[in-house]
Amino acid sequence: MIEYRQIKQIEKQVDKYIDKMKGISDFLFKNPELGGEEYIASKYLIDIADKMGFRTVENYCGLDTAFMAEFQNGQGPVLAVVVEYDALPGFGPDGSLAHACGHNWISAVGMGTAMIMSEMKDEFSGTLRLLGTPAMENLGCKAEMIKAHAFDDVDVVIQSHLEHYTTVACKFLALDAIEFKFRGRASHASSSPEEGINALDAVQFMFIGVNALRPYLGSGIKIHGVISEGGEAPSVIPDIAACKYYIRADSRKQLETIKPKIIRCAEGAALMAGAEMTMSYVENPHDDMLNLPLLQKTAEQYIVNEGIRINEDYESIAGFSSADIGNVSHVCPTLYMEFDVEANKDFRVHDKIALNYVNSEYSLKKLKQVSKIMAEVLMELYNNQELVEDIKKEHGKMMREKAVCESKMI
Fold it and tell me: Which of 68, 192, 194, 197 is the most exposed, having the fewest neighbouring CB atoms within 10 Å of its CB?
């Protein structure tokens, strides 16, 4: 654990910057933008980083709304704080955009942590990097940033999220998002149906095939589909129809064993309808989350010290989804923490009820607590190079073991 005086210094900086953190949360909450279109949010956050004296890079990794802001403070580890700022469609008034996942808060706590650390440069040596990662909800742009080598020289990544529980052992599922498109032949549905090839029939066969396959996929597999295109008018046999599927599994290797079976369902559906099938990935793939015991233990001591109870029964109260931070965890050691808003049992992300809490007195309390925790974790990592190296070794060992175990599973 870091020294008591450093903890008190961090507390002082939290008090100094809490109003600015609240302002960031409020501004983004009131200016929601769709993933990939966060022009207001990214410029706003870049301007704040500029004023903090960070070196900033806009359009980072070739993405319009991604950014990098860096504070170099001598030799030492490169530690990255990830911020997200895209909103969700459909949760605001009349189906408008809204921050029902609390990304306004994620940006506020990440930027606030950077503010705290920039004031404590005499207490550590190393590089602090802010990574603005857009379109988490709809495109998974961290995968694009990984391809562009944004995380290659990062020693540890840290990020926090609001939830209805507290854990440092978050589970995310591997995910592929695939659209299957079928091409047939249009014809009048009443006067000349024999001349047509109904592409929508192929889509319906696809759903029947996948549903028949479900009992044989094993545990940990989740498959959800929607019809994304189904024709224009009942009087015309549709020549084009399509469906989108989310295919999830506990691990990437497990998902890769399942995916060919789903593709065969699509091929069989096309064959039965007499249509042609093509497939495309409509989002970047997501990987499962890799949690590191050393990083978890480092964070837990500061969480408990803050009076926050960690939910040991996390897996029994959480629903498992997918996130592109999982991809990052396979590239470099990643600490992903989820914190209970401590409002009431009704709070859920991706729900309209979340809008009552993600920019409220409840989330403000969490801004203070979590920015302090994140700064404490960063300070310990900066001042304990041996711990950082052990964490990196643990990450490498876990990746090797994971590869061996999953190869055996296949």
Answer: 194
